[in-house]
Specification:
The protein is mainly α. The protein is built from 5 helices and no strands. It has one domain. The C terminus is likely disordered.
Length: about 150
């Protein structure tokens, strides 16, 4: 093998390395594009879930604060009820906001503090067992009171 052959083989090898580098660069760009698409396909829905959860949490807190502001129950009592509602909700297939609104309706109707949560829980259980029932709320009470005249 002479110097000319070695130079030619080195040139061929260098050309092959340049082509390999270009190919790896293209593969890297394609992988980055795929990663970006996957990130958008995964990140956007997760972000949406986070926003929805945050809104539901704020709605629940606002409903609970209505009991303090409009019904006049103590913040301490409402905080205890809030924790209990969060624990009870999954057991009776009712969302926290729905239960908080029911608790507002029950407490504003004058049900005693010691009995209010039990009324909401029993109503929630009845509504879970029979879809024709609903837990207390202004929307469910209005048709009944209007029907009575």
């Amino acid at each position: 093998m002479g110097v000319a052959d070695a130079t030619r083989q080195l040139a061929t090898f260098q050309s092959g390395l340049k082509q390999l580098g270009a190919n790896l660069g293209q593969i890297g760009q394609q992988m980055a594009q795929v990663g970006s698409r996957m990130s958008m396909g995964l990140t956007a829905p997760l972000l949406g879930i986070g926003v929805a959860a945050g809104k539901m949490s704020m709605d629940f807190r606002q409903s609970m604060q209505t009991i303090v502001g409009l019904v006049g129950k103590s913040q301490e009592q409402v905080d205890v009820w809030a924790k209990q509602l969060m624990d009870i909700g999954p057991q009776i297939s009712r969302g926290p906001k729905e239960l908080a609104e029911a608790l507002y309706f029950v407490t504003s109707a004058g049900v005693a503090t010691k009995d209010a949560l039990d009324v909401v829980v029993q109503s929630g259980k009845a509504a879970a067992a029979n879809p024709r029932w609903s837990i207390p709320s202004p929307d469910t009470a209005r048709p009944r009171t209007e029907a009575c005249g």
